[in-house]
């Protein structure tokens, strides 16, 4: 992407066929069709009226796209992200990183599509406006608050379970931060000041898999991205991920995927 931002249409044929790490951030608007979007393993079902915010550095994967899929994409650079979030409450930004999806219907969706998205299209193309950049930033901020509002309302509806979901959010953030050094449930339970049993039960209830499964699945996801996006040798990747050696890495990868790292890399 050249420049700080770009508004364009993404269809089924444009989707990557393997997990990739986002260099830029994106607002995604599903205009028609449907697709499953995985962000750092979290699954989202996008249909007409869905709006989702993807942050730079997150890993995305698309699956099950309908032939008629049409996504309006507003992509923005990491630097432009700082401009969007500058002066916004940090707790809101942190909340939206984990609760970044909203689904709108009826008049609400018409408002999002015909007001916010239309305004973003107009201002992104208004090169003669000396305040174009500032106007685009404020359009993005308005969208940010709309998504945040919907997500917070949904979050409050599950208020009785908010402690469970907060623990889940903290666990996932900690794994993403430490997965190269630590892959045991005991380590994360200790860091979060809960028992291993309580952590595993909470992750099972909120995510649908065990804590150990989530850790391993995320490590495999990061390994797939590294295999596809770098020319590092298997030994260098083993070193980067703190595996004892490349043979151990190979056994670990094959156990979870059914193929060797070399075979997976050759698939691209």
Explained architecture:
InterPro entries: AraC-bd, Homeodomain-like_sf, HTH-like, HTH_AraC, RmlC-like_jellyroll. It comes from Bacteroides stercorirosoris. With 268 residues, the chain is of the alpha+beta class. It is 53% helix and 18% strand. The chain folds into two domains: 5-93 and 100-157, Jelly Rolls (Sandwich); 161-266, Orthogonal Bundle (Arc Repressor Mutant, subunit A), CATH 1.10.10. The chain has eleven helices and nine strands. A five-stranded antiparallel beta sheet has the order 1-8-3-6-9. A four-stranded antiparallel beta sheet has the order 2-7-4-5, with helices on one face. A hairpin with a 2-residue loop joins strand 4 (34-39) and strand 5. Helix 3 (106-125) runs antiparallel to helix 4 and helix 5 packs across helix 7 (196-207). 24% of the residues are buried.
């Amino acid at each position: 992407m050249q420049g700080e931002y770009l508004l364009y249409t993404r269809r089924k044929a444009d989707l990557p066929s393997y997990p990739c790490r986002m260099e830029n951030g994106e607002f995604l608007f599903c205009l028609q069709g449907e697709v499953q979007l995985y962000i750092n393993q979290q699954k989202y079902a996008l249909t007409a009226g869905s709006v989702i915010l993807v942050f730079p550095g997150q890993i995305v994967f698309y699956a099950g796209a309908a032939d008629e899929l049409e996504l309006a994409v507003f992509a923005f650079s990491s630097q432009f992200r700082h401009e969007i979030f500058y002066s916004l409450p940090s707790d809101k930004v942190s909340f939206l990183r984990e609760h970044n999806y909203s689904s709108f219907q009826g008049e609400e969706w018409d408002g999002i599509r015909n007001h916010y998205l239309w305004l973003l299209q107009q201002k992104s193309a208004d090169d003669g406006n000396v305040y174009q950049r500032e106007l685009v930033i404020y359009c993005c901020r308005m969208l940010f608050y709309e998504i945040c509002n919907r997500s917070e309302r949904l979050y409050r509806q599950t208020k009785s379970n908010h402690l469970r979901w907060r623990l889940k959010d903290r666990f996932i953030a900690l794994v993403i931060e430490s997965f190269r050094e630590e892959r045991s449930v005991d380590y994360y339970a200790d860091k979060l000041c809960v028992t291993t049993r309580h952590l595993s039960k909470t992750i099972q209830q909120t995510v649908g898999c065990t804590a150990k499964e989530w850790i391993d699945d995320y490590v495999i996801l990061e390994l797939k991205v590294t295999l596809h996006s770098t020319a590092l040798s298997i030994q260098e990747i083993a070193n980067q991920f703190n595996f004892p050696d490349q043979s151990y890495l190979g056994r670990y990868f094959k156990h979870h995927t059914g193929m060797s790292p070399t075979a997976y890399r050759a698939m691209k």
